[in-house]
Design goal:
The chain has 379 residues and is of the alpha+beta class. It has three domains: 111 residues, Acyl-CoA dehydrogenase/oxidase, N-terminal domain (Butyryl-Coa Dehydrogenase, subunit A, domain 1, Orthogonal Bundle), CATH 1.10.540.10; 108 residues, Butyryl-CoA Dehydrogenase, subunit A, domain 2 (Beta Barrel), CATH 2.40.110.10; 128 residues, Up-down Bundle (Butyryl-CoA Dehydrogenase, subunit A, domain 3), CATH 1.20.140. It contains eleven helices and eight strands. Strands 1-4-5-8 form a four-stranded mixed sheet, covered by helices on one side. It has a four-stranded antiparallel sheet with strand order 2-3-7-6, with no helix packed on it. The termini are close together. The structure holds flavin-adenine dinucleotide. Flavin-adenine dinucleotide (FAD) binds next to β1 and α11. Keywords: FAD, Flavoprotein, Oxidoreductase. InterPro entries: Acyl-CoA_DH_CS, Acyl-CoA_Oxase/DH_mid-dom, Acyl-CoA_Oxase/DH_mid-dom_sf, AcylCo_DH/oxidase_C, AcylCoA_DH/ox_N, AcylCoA_DH/ox_N_sf, AcylCoA_DH/oxidase_NM_dom_sf, Mycobact_Acyl-CoA_DH. It comes from Caballeronia arvi. GO terms for molecular function: acyl-CoA dehydrogenase activity; flavin adenine dinucleotide binding. It holds the Pfam family Acyl-CoA_dh_N.
Length: 379
């Protein structure tokens, strides 16, 4: 069996200094904090305000308007924003994975054109991976880009594409060569302007009644040669590195903390031993996950492969998030009610509706456990 260890995370004085600054900034911000699933709040005005403070694309080099910071500084800012349920979803995908992907595999022109806009909080991305018949098994994607004069012609459909109707670009994974014995071969990634003729978004309303997902259809969509990201046929390898960014951050275990915060506020007026034990257990789990996530940031900084560690954090973190509503319901007998004036009741309803999706988005827990087992040499 392979060895598995999480190196000690590094302390960063710069990061801790930033923590105080972010707290001051969010204290002065009067947005709605009662939507308990903070990660889903889409607010371009807030994203732009963060961009002006230099808190988006903090790890991008300064020549692309980034802060030139390390991952630890970015984690601190993210933790503070998630803790107050700030609406960061507009820019979150771009800054978490699309920007870093372009930085690593994009052309200089793509980087110069896009990264400064991401850092400014004005350019948003969606992820075009899942298809009606390909979710977990991404190697089976059927959306196809065919080589034509000066570019590529794309036909096919993506599904569950979060925010496709309100983002500027998609990173599209599609087939550029016929399927072969090596199923992961022949896939490529493209930078797609969502305004390109031939792209249609059809809304899918989720269980909470919100329009976040979409079906995205491509009908004879022309993409110029310079839309290719990285190397033709290397899409699988590129997307795997993108998922490491996606899977290990605090948004994978802190997005339901709003309900816990409201729960603690109620407990202050109705203290109980069971309540205290529950809060203690939740905080113990949270601090362990936080340490693991910070450890992965150190590994990525040192250019170590952290894909196994990231899969573990996502599995443990999203199961933790998913159990929060049930854990809280066993202590306080409150009726969950979406939009209720009682902050705890509204927050509880919100996390109950979002909990099922925690262990599906970004890779299901079964698939992640398969990755972990394989990486550890257990199958
Ligand atoms: C909130 C949310 C946001 C999302 N946003 C996006 C997005 O922006 N872009 C995007 O491309 N996709 C997005 N998705 C889609 C998501 O990535 C897929 O739903 C997910 O990968 C599962 O694929 P599927 O739905 O096709 O299920 P399937 O792959 O059909 O899986 C069905 C079940 O079978 C299990 N299963 C499948 N294969 C295996 C295996 N090898 N071993 C064990 N069990 C297995 C799965 O765990 C699952 O329980 C989002 C999903 C959610 C819930």
């Amino acid at each position: 069996m392979n060895n598995l260890s999480f190196p000690r995370p590094r302390q960063s004085e710069i990061a801790e200094g930033l923590r105080a600054e972010v707290r001051e900034f969010v204290d002065g911000w009067h947005g709605n904090r009662h939507n308990a699933a903070s990660f889903s709040g889409f607010d371009p005005e807030f994203s732009e305000a963060l961009g002006k403070r230099g808190w988006i694309g903090m790890g991008f080099p300064t020549r692309y308007r980034g802060g030139g910071y390390g991952l630890m500084e970015r984690l601190v800012v993210l933790e503070e924003l998630l803790a107050v349920r700030a609406p960061i979803f507009a820019h979150a995908v771009a800054e978490r994975q699309s920007g870093p992907l372009l930085l690593r595999f994009g052309t200089e022109r793509q980087r110069e054109e896009i990264l400064p806009r991401i850092a400014a909080g004005t350019c948003y991305f969606c992820i075009g991976l899942s298809e009606p018949d390909s979710g977990s098994d991404l190697a089976s994607v059927r959306t196809r880009a065919t080589k034509v004069d000066g570019g590529w012609r794309v036909n096919g459909a993506k599904i569950w594409t979060s925010s496709a109707h309100r983002t500027h670009y998609m990173i599209l994974l599609c087939r550029t060569a016929p399927a072969s014995e090596v199923r992961q071969a022949g896939l490529s990634q493209f930078l797609v302007d969502m305004k390109t003729p031939g792209i249609t978004c059809r809304p899918i309303v989720n269980i909470a009644g919100d329009h976040d997902f979409n079906e995205v259809h491509f009908q004879d969509v022309f993409l110029a040669d310079d839309a290719l990201i990285g190397v033709e046929g290397q899409g699988w390898q590129q997307v795997t590195s993108e998922l490491t960014f996606e899977r290990s951050g605090p948004d994978r275990f802190m997005s339901h903390m709003g309900a816990v915060e409201e729960f603690v506020a109620v407990l202050k007026t109705q203290p109980s031993a069971e309540g205290a034990r529950t809060v203690g257990r939740l905080v113990a789990h949270l601090s362990t996950l936080r340490r693991m996530s910070r450890s992965i940031a150190a590994m990525i900084t040192d250019e170590q492969d952290a894909s196994l560690h990231a899969a573990l954090v996502k599995d443990l973190g999203t199961c933790f998030e998913q159990e929060i509503p049930e854990t809280l319901r066993l202590v306080l007998q409150t009726e969950p009610e979406p939009g209720a004036s009682d902050a705890y009741s509204a927050a509880l309803a919100n996390v109950i509706l979002h909990a099922p999706s925690c262990t599906i988005r970004g890779g299901t827990k079964e698939v992640l456990r398969g990755i972990v087992a394989k990486s550890l040499g257990l199958r």
